[in-house]
Amino acid sequence: MARSFLFPQDSADPATTRLIAAAAQFTGFMKGEPGPPLPGWYAPQGDNSAFLGELLAALRAAYPQARPAFWAVRLWTNLTWQPIYLAFIAVHVHGAVPDLLGLTQRRRGIYVDGYRLLAEAQSSGTTEEMVEGAAQQLRALSETMLEEVNALAKLRPIPAQRLFAERVLSLLVRLARKQPDLRNEQIRGLAQLWLGALDMEGRGELEAVGAPDGTEVLIVRRKGCCLDYLITPDRLCSNCSRQDEEQRRVRQLADVLAERG
User: Fold this and answer.
1) Which phi and psi (to 5°) does residue 65 adopt?
2) Spatial contact of 222 and 204, defined as CB atoms under 8 Å apart
3) Does residue 138 contact residue 87 with C-beta atoms inside 8 Å?
4) Which of 39, 125, 147, 252 sits at 20 to 30 Å (Cα–Cα) from 239?
């Protein structure tokens, strides 16, 4: 990746703070702070066996009726959501990509929620260059994370990649709603760019549905499954592929319209 350093080392602290603030503003819920890992946190390239063992124990206690496949999925989605969000926001909102090996994560009960990020130089460039750089880091992180999950509960690569890709696609849909000047063709192009860079082509898909005002909005057509139906069998996710296709589209469109207000 050809890159320039938008924020050199001596100004990395404000750059890191700006990225953390951008993530909080874009999502409304991400909670981060600059700094090194704290004891007991998940750290890339560290020994995370105790962290994951405690998370798995908490999931088993909270959902004893679920199967090991559900616990494996929850381990995976808990570990990966913050790196995905931060990488995406770094590219499309902040405009520079940090070193994600400096991202450490906190556990709160059955959730991984909260992070710290080392204040280091961030790389900038074209959107294509930043996506490639962020995706390269995410690929490396996710490979390690999947190995760590499989040491405790089995999760095959393809289902894991589908969930990962769909997280990225859902962020693109959110970006389109926050930046209405972006056309659907541009969002589809960004989807191809991200999935290609992640080596996850075909793992997820965007779909256009018609809104009452005559416009077309993009939704995520899922190929993966979070397995939440194992704990709430009477309530499926609005985008769950186990329901009738038309019902799914209606529910997802309702979500979009509700978010628009």
Assistant:
1) -80, -15
2) yes
3) yes
4) 147
For 206-232, write each residue's pLDDT tens digit: 999 999 999 999 999 999 999 999 999
Q: Given strand 111-117, what is the order of strands in its sheet?
A: 32-34, 111-117, 103-108
Maximal C-alpha separation, the chain = 55
pLDDT computed for residue 30 by the predictor: 97
Q: How far apart are CA 99 and CA 87, in angstroms?
A: 9
End-to-end CA distance of the chain: 40
| Separation between Cα atoms, residue 61 and residue 81, nearest integer Å | 22
**Residue 112's beta-bridge partner residues?**
107
d(CA 205, CA 197): 15
* pLDDT, mean of residues 28-52: 95
Q: Quick check: helix, strand or coil at residue 154?
A: coil
Q: Which two tokens stand for residue 169?
A: 């696609």
pLDDT at 261: 65
121, 12 Cβ separation under 8 angstroms: yes
pLDDT mean across residues, the chain:
93
Q: Are 31 and 24 in contact (CB under 8 A)?
A: yes
Pairing state between β 205-210 and 216-221: antiparallel
Q: Strand 103-108 relative to strand 216-221: parallel, antiparallel, unpaired?
A: unpaired
Give, in degrees to the nearest 5, the angle at Cα 74 between 73 and 78. 120
What pLDDT band is residue 11 in, cutting at 50, 70 and 90? Answer: very low
With contact defined as beta carbons under 8 Å apart, do 116 and 34 qualify?
yes
The span from the CA of 109 to the CA of 57, in Å, is 10
User: Alpha helices of the chain — where are they, by DSSP H?
Assistant: 12-27, 49-62, 68-89, 127-150, 157-178, 184-197, 245-260
CA dihedral 141→144→149→154, nearest 10 degrees, is: 120
